[in-house]
Design brief:
Two copies of one chain form a homodimer.
Chain A: H1 2-8, H2 16-28, H3 32-43, H4 51-66, E1 70-82, E2 86-90, E3 99-101, E4 103-105, E5 117-124, H5 127-133, E6 141-144, H6 157-173, E7 178-182, E8 208-211, H7 213-225, E9 229-234, E10 237-251, E11 256-266, H8 276-294, E12 302-309, H9 317-325, E13 333-338, E14 346-352, H10 357-361, E15 395-400, H11 405-408, H12 421-440, H13 453-456
Helix pairs in contact in A: 2-8, 2-12, 3-8, 8-12
């Protein structure tokens, strides 16, 4: 009966042998975890401008060569921000002792004067509350105390991250002495989570640090009792820009080599840890997909291009440089997929494309059914590929389980042990197959209607 | 019908009015959480010998006086160990970079030489594996890599803690250069957990530090690949002993004031955080029980004595001093209960006493039924009351939910936010009622057959 049904069903539009080879290869003969380990245990932290970042570029070039891809380093000038001493404490007050605070500078923060800055703390929950302070913010430490924290649920990162990215700059415009931002974290054991904060050229800057969730709760409690003075000392600084690179590796298409399916991840990481889930995992997934596709007996119709971006974390110089350098062929980028959401197992396929895209892609997704990832759903996009939205490049995403992602993200706990090898292999299988499908299907996905660069950006 | 059953049932051996007053008082009009906040947010860390520990003694004396108890400070000489700089790193090796390690000195550790000690790491999983090394341990950093880690389940703390307590001393006897101990933790975000390590007088000592669970996993992985060199730098040191105190507060018995029901907790904490669950929670519970009993219109038959011990964490000087100073009345200590297992809700009543004790106490436990804590089960004992086992004092315990306890224990994350006020109030209610029952019941519990000091000791 099953055999009869199979005879009655239309044949799939793809080669079942190739599907088995790609998915099976990732699951039974994969090197994604080994590659993630090389990038973390072998190289370690990879903040833009650091020796680790440069080592990662060389490592990636070498691995892609070994995998038989056509690879090159494309120049990117990156910022070189370095962390220094970092300390903060609540000063003693009438009726209570002082407290040391667990803090870490936000990337891009200037240093405090030697000895630190000491000021009264004012708590706000939003940029609107900050702006309502107006002149009262002058000389104060602005404490951004949002409420992101939903273990296992919707994280609220998208809503809270503008406070970290733009809050300190807005506080600086009001004459504040500094900024403390509650860590953007869904779990905490007193570990602060860093991340970029942005000051426009020529605009005022203030020292800005993340504080742990526990210390944010402490400040909140103490502020119920009376004024709170905090001393913040940061030794971070920005050195001259450094020459670095995106690593770009092609599996040239057999029929339409000028049409490109782009697979993105980023080589750089924050400096507090090894950058395992952010984004050694994505690098390993993208490399694995390209490696498996390159090993096929016949290359797909279009070019599959793996791009390992530099400087995703604190400037997006790599993403901007790629879009600029490849503007003339951006119209021939038929799809882009960014892998920058950790090492969780695949859940669904996200799509940001023109009308009819789902119908085109759907018949190709059956090989992902047993992985539980054959349905459409969720977001697609990414910080590195964000600039390509201006060119109406369709974005495709392999959505992953991110329920623990913000427990570790941008913190000292982003270490290799957080990667479950089987989950990583499943995501690599899904990305390999989706990339192949996009490069092999007869038609290309219709392009989205309008560039919506903001909506297309990733969560960083 | 229910009224008829009630008429047929034997009357309870206790006054229902007093049960309602104690349990209801803790649940509706309690100050346990407020007291825990005063000890943590108000005073902060309280390691023996520190200003915080001294402030805690003064605070406790004042609070007990306000509560109308007969209170005194009993002298205890305590060690004064202070933390200094602490850093560790895996040195780079062929084919891989170096890594910084998240470490914290174990209490009692000596300092390293300035600049640290650099040595090859040897991994062991037990004291037996250490001893099997014999001469191979000389000059090495011994890495104790046990496997405690069962979130929400049995923690394994009792099995693993001897590695931390005695492993470094044993390594020192073999000529090791130092010791690294995997943190005794059931959850980790790269935060090391400290704790005491013990060197006998005159025996060799080595610098000893806890490393985070993640860093233990890193060392384990790197050791699979080849030799690993670590540099460990600790600035901790032991200063001269300091005069401190246990705080002892009585609600004198109305009929048999010479018979004592002892309620114990400890004022001191580790220095990495506020010591909220270890043991501000226990202090608050014991104070609350004593306060509620002292407010009754009629005091119970026997004396209820709250003892807030000093130096539970790194020496047990307070527990030893109390047992010595009160040896002559130890026979008249009819029960001892230690509250040093965090702030979780009450689950059951533990008993370590002579035959027939359960039968005597059982009829008194009905008021705890709706709290879910009226059944017997689990351990009883405690580090501070441990020395009283030599006098065959019956130990009674209000067992609590400790499923998250070792997530935070002895780490920087032991902060007030980990205390759920409702859970703390329920445990205070249970302890108040059990203490009252022990002080009011006509008979006393039969004493346990033999002193088993070791079994009676708490987990520290």
């Amino acid at each position: 009966m099953l055999a009869l049904l199979a005879l009655l069903a239309p044949p799939p539009p793809y080669s079942p042998e190739i599907a088995a080879r790609l998915v099976g290869g990732a699951l039974t003969d994969g090197v994604a975890y080994v590659r993630a380990a090389q990038l973390t245990d072998g190289i370690g932290a990879r903040l833009s401008g650091s020796a680790g970042a440069e080592a990662a570029v060389q490592w990636a070039l070498q691995r892609f060569r070994e995998d038989g891809l056509s690879v090159r380093a494309e120049p990117v000038k990156v910022p070189h921000w370095v962390r220094g001493e970092e300390r903060a404490e609540v000063l003693p007050a009438r009726g209570r002792s002082g407290h040391s605070l667990a803090v870490t500078a936000l990337g891009g923060s200037p240093a405090t004067p030697v000895g630190g800055v000491t000021a009264e703390v004012i708590e706000v929950r939003s940029l609107a509350e900050l702006h309502a302070l107006a002149g009262k913010a002058r000389g104060k430490l602005i404490f951004f105390d949002h409420s992101m924290s939903t273990p296992g649920g919707k994280t609220g990162y998208g809503e809270a991250s503008p406070l970290r990215n733009h809050g300190p700059a807005e506080a600086a415009k009001l004459g504040a002495a500094g900024a403390l931002v509650r860590s953007l974290a869904t779990a905490s054991l007193r570990d602060p989570h860093t991340g970029a904060t942005t000051f426009e050229d020529g605009a005022p800057q203030v020292p800005a640090a993340a504080i742990s969730v526990e210390d944010a709760a402490l400040l909140h409690r103490l502020l119920q009792q009376g004024p709170v003075q905090v001393r913040l000392a940061l030794g971070c600084r920005t050195l001259p820009d450094v020459d670095s690179a995106n690593v770009v590796a092609d599996v040239p298409g057999r029929e339409k080599p000028e049409e490109v399916v782009l697979l993105a991840a980023h080589l750089d990481s924050w400096d507090l840890a090894q950058g395992a889930i952010d984004d050694a995992a994505g690098v390993a997934v993208v490399m694995e997909a390209a490696r498996l596709i390159a090993r096929l007996p016949q290359r797909p119709r279009r070019t599959v291009r793996a791009v390992l971006f530099m400087n995703e974390e604190n400037g997006l110089a790599g993403g901007k440089a790629y879009a600029q350098a490849h503007a003339s062929e951006a119209e021939r980028h038929v799809a882009a997929l960014e892998s920058d959401a950790g090492a969780g197992r695949p859940l669904s396929i996200g799509l940001r494309a023109g009308e009819g895209a789902q119908a085109l892609l759907a018949p190709w997704l059956a090989p992902l059914e047993t992985l539980g990832a054959a349905d459409f759903g969720g977001e697609s996009g990414g910080a590195d590929i964000g600039p390509l939205a201006a060119f109406r490049v369709p974005f495709v995403g392999v959505q992953q389980d991110v329920s623990r992602y913000f427990d570790y993200h941008h913190s000292a706990a982003d270490t290799l042990d957080k990667i479950v090898p089987a989950d990583l292999a499943q995501t690599a299988a899904a990305v390999a197959w989706v990339a192949y499908a996009l490069a092999e299907m007869p038609q290309v996905l219709p392009r989205p209607a309008a560039p919506a660069a903001r909506a297309a950006g990733g969560q960083k």
